[in-house]
Amino acid sequence: MLGFLLICFLIIGSLVYFVQSVKRRKLKQVPVDNKKVFGKWTPVSFEAPRPVPYPDWSVETTRPLPYRPFKYGPDYFVTMGIKHLDWNDWIELDNEWTKYHNTKLARLSEDRSSRLYKIAPEAQDAALETMELLSEYLVYRYPSLFEYQFNNKQKQIRIKTTGETYPIYSDDPLKYASLLIQDDLALMMEGSDGQYYLKGGIIIIPGFWRLEDKFNMPLAQIHTSGDVPKFEEKLKCSMERYFQKMSPQHPVIRYNYFIQTDGELAWSSSIGSEDTFGIGWENAIPNPPIEKIHFRSERQSLRRLPRSGAILFTIRPYFIPVVDIAEEPNIPGRLASAIRSWPDDVARYKGKQAYEDVVLKYLDEKHEQQVENDLQEDNPKPYPY
After folding, report:
1. Where is the secretion signal located (predicted)?
2. What's the pLDDT score for residue 10?
């Protein structure tokens, strides 16, 4: 009996202590800030770690990384698909840098150049911050290609292979930043309504979309105007919440892929002329020769800029003939399975009707050859390779 009473006493004492602890914790809680002013950013004192030099990097010999961001079916999942980004790997350059650089220079010399590069006044500081951060990263990550120099005490970045120099501080920092890398750039900024708007961009090699059609649009409209499948049901809320909470300390990366029925890196003319109003897969001539069909993937990084608060997108396309990737072990069977897994809305968005017959037939044949010749890998590479 005495033991039972002792146990009851201990239980009651524990409950009293628990209730008092909860009360103390409530008193120490910081009130939730319900008075956040949207569109106002307080600069954050944060510096990204300085990158280490890319091991043995060469503008002649370093090959593009073989991103193959698709999986075997039968299911197709719609997610944001973001992953942690190592600060060392923010920007990837390879032996196609010269080709991309020359393509950008040529495109910016055309009459349409003002449509490829747009910056709102409120995004000007974010553009300057982009150039500052990008140039510093490149000088340390790729020292064989870039170096700082000073001209009349003005800081510049010099491309060693071409001799070109670009100012760090100028009226067009986003344009110069883009010419240093193989990526396009876009700046999203928070408006007074809490939504994020496309307020700056230099989109030179997009393949399928035009900056002029999306400029000043909020995040949701950018996607819905492009008929991105399942955006409203699966992505809208999570993406908007993520943008609100994203911090400068945590950059992320994501991947996507398309099939393109021509070999034009900058703009896929098969969907219509870049200078006309009506562009879309309905313009494509169906099932061209397999030699003309290309696999296009994108590596996109997102990071919050600490001074301006803008979210910077880098958009790097990788472009390779389907006949080339079909020689890689496991790839033809995996890609064919992924294409077959697309639901109808995804198939329309990716233009499947324009190439499915010729592409799937070719991939199936290559897959059968690999199986017959025992060319399948026992341990396939992890996503996204």
Report:
1. 1-21
2. 36
